[in-house]
Amino acid sequence: MAAARLARAAPTAAGAALHAAGGRLPLPGGGGHHLLGHSQGGMYPAGFVYIFMGLYYATGRGTDIRTAQHIFAVLYLATLLLVFLIYHQTCKVPPFVFFFMCCASYRVHSIFVLRLFNDPVAMALLFLSINLLLARRWGWGCCCFSLAVSVKMNVLLFAPGLLFLLLMQFGFRGALPKLGICAVLQVLLGLPFLLENPIGYLSRSFDLGRQFLFRWTVNWRFLPEALFLHRAFHLALLAAHLALLFLFAFCRWHRTGESILSLLKDPSKRKVPPQPLTPNQIISTLFTSNFIGICFSRSLHYQFYVWYFHTLPYLLWATPARWLTHLLRLLVLGLIELSWNTYPSTSCSSAALHICHAVILLQLWLGPQPFPRSIQHRKKAH
């Protein structure tokens, strides 16, 4: 699998080289090769192309798989370091949980070192972005966030949380330059492809309507295939996703007592001046935003496990409801791991995964507030 993945990078590398030399770059929608990407003929954004083209040449045109595995092993260790730096600033998760994060997931080790997917690359850049946000380097954090999106589109699941944090911290006008960084970087990275075939690049790289194969789904195996593929089912999931995001934004994240439209104002002009964001508020918002998206995904494939695997300890331990004991949290982690290691997925494994997701969502809703009511608002209440 790893060998085939790197070997299929040949059209990508050759296409980029042709473009640099002034030749025609083959793109989806036209003749010739499509860029390396989805198993159904799609493609990934430009950042992926550059990274895997580099891997292709660094591994003897995709023949030295051992070197590629060593590179991904280093990436795995770097990802763990970035995750530990994030958790170190929260002081919420007991140390024994990190044993499970490092040693207990065969599936995650396989995704990184055996399969050489681009998902780990995107998530490593995402965790780097979060570390920069925690260090109050908002511009650089947005830059790394955009780099992560350029590797794989799933990082956009964090975008609603990031947008909320930017508005809360800077207001609408202050957030625009940060959002501009994200947009400009996407344009610069995709410029060679945008100049050649903008419609083909945008429609395939950021294909929100992509159909997934039922045989690979991890989360919806208990449904009939016709329902899984039905457009109405996809729209219902999208509606539920957006509705839950709005509920969390209105009821869990926005706690000043003002209208949520106050986030559009300059912070100095709000009735309740915002307090500096704490690490737990930043992490909770981003991880919850991503988790909600995963719960309502049209399909989860096995490599998608890394989209949220490293966030699960925080989601379970940071703001736990009282009824969620340590033993129950470990049981939830174990069942999620078992569901992702059941191949092919079954109705039982998919149902168990959804039950675990529902437990986490429920405790995120019922647990202690990551955003307490503002001090000024509490004083007015007295």
Automatic annotation (TrEMBL):
Q: What is its main location?
A: endoplasmic reticulum
Pathway(s) this gene product operates in, as recorded in its UniProt entry: Protein modification; protein glycosylation
EC category name: transferase
Compartment annotation: Endoplasmic reticulum membrane
For this record, the Gene Ontology CC terms, alphabetical, are: endoplasmic reticulum membrane
Q: Where, by residue number, does the polypeptide cross the bilayer?
A: 42-59, 71-90, 121-139, 145-167, 232-251, 304-323
Query: Could you tell me the keywords of this UniProt record?
Result: Endoplasmic reticulum, Glycosyltransferase, Membrane, Transferase, Transmembrane, Transmembrane helix
Q: Which reaction(s) does the protein catalyse, per the Swiss-Prot or TrEMBL entry?
A: an alpha-D-Man-(1->2)-alpha-D-Man-(1->2)-alpha-D-Man-(1->3)-[alpha-D-Man-(1->6)]-beta-D-Man-(1->4)-beta-D-GlcNAc-(1->4)-alpha-D-GlcNAc-diphospho-di-trans,poly-cis-dolichol + a di-trans,poly-cis-dolichyl beta-D-mannosyl phosphate = an alpha-D-Man-(1->2)-alpha-D-Man-(1->2)-alpha-D-Man-(1->3)-[alpha-D-Man-(1->3)-alpha-D-Man-(1->6)]-beta-D-Man-(1->4)-beta-D-GlcNAc-(1->4)-alpha-D-GlcNAc-diphospho-di-trans,poly-cis-dolichol + a di-trans,poly-cis-dolichyl phosphate + H(+)
GN (gene name):
ALG3
Which protein are we looking at? Dol-P-Man:Man(5)GlcNAc(2)-PP-Dol alpha-1,3-mannosyltransferase
Species whose genome carries this gene: Odobenus rosmarus divergens
Enzyme Commission number(s): 2.4.1.258
